[in-house]
Specification:
2 domains; Alpha-Beta Plaits; single chain; four-stranded antiparallel sheet; alpha/beta; seven-stranded mixed sheet; Rossmann fold; 11 helices
Amino acid sequence: MNWVEITIEVETKDLEKAGDIANMVVPYGIYIEDYSELEDEVLQIANIDLIDEDLLKKDRNKGLIHIYISPEDNPKEAVAYLTERYESERLDYKIGLSNCEDEDWLNNWKQYFYPIEIGERLLIRPTWREKYDCKDRVVIDLDPGLAFGTGTHETTRLCLKALEKYISGGERVLDVGCGSGILGIAALLLGAEQAQGIDIDELAVKTAKENAALNNVSEKFEIMCGNLSDKASGKYDVITANIVADAIMLLSENITDFMNESSVYIMSGIIDSRADEVKSNISDKLTIMEEYEDNGWYCLVASLKNS
């Protein structure tokens, strides 16, 4: 099998946090290089003071995280996921690919992305796939570019399944961390009246706008670059956030300001090991109505407390 190696360089002080995020991409572990305490660790283990010269030249202020992923597991989405999550955590990072040019990698990846049926009503069609049977489903035309959200990742699929249930027509929708724009587009195609998408990544905003145009929903979908507190206003009937556990817990501090008594808040991107922590964190303000789970990922649907 051909593997794509994704290498992430971060400051050593951020290695643990960056490693936790990287571990969300693959279930079978990651490889981390950390030379910040090289001499002390070698002395403790081997009781010697002779260390290979190449090791001594390693940068003690930087660490490397290695991920190995097959093309079938969608390395493109993995890089988009990592990029957006590291941006949201304001980490200083670099992401690289070994033994593969970016353009070749992007084009090769496309061969594994086919139309995907989601839930009972949706079908995601990559723009380069012209032959498909929609089976009376709502079709989302998608070119993800370098933004997260193609429908292949469990967290996105879970959000889309929840949207199917809670979009009945006429809703005002907010998507926090909109990525490719897939959730806002899906909501509008399912019958929502208006959607707003917010992302801190300018590339994601650009991609989301292009996908909105592909699906003829640009007039109803306002996509903005920035933070929730700066860009969102008023109340929303449905709010989605397909991000990470820490960001969801941070959002819970003021997300209720944008909810009314009947609003639904759909949260995804929560790894199973953090699910209980998130539930406990949001319990003061929100009541969990439903939980969805797929392959170790959780999606929570909540309403205002006592609503």
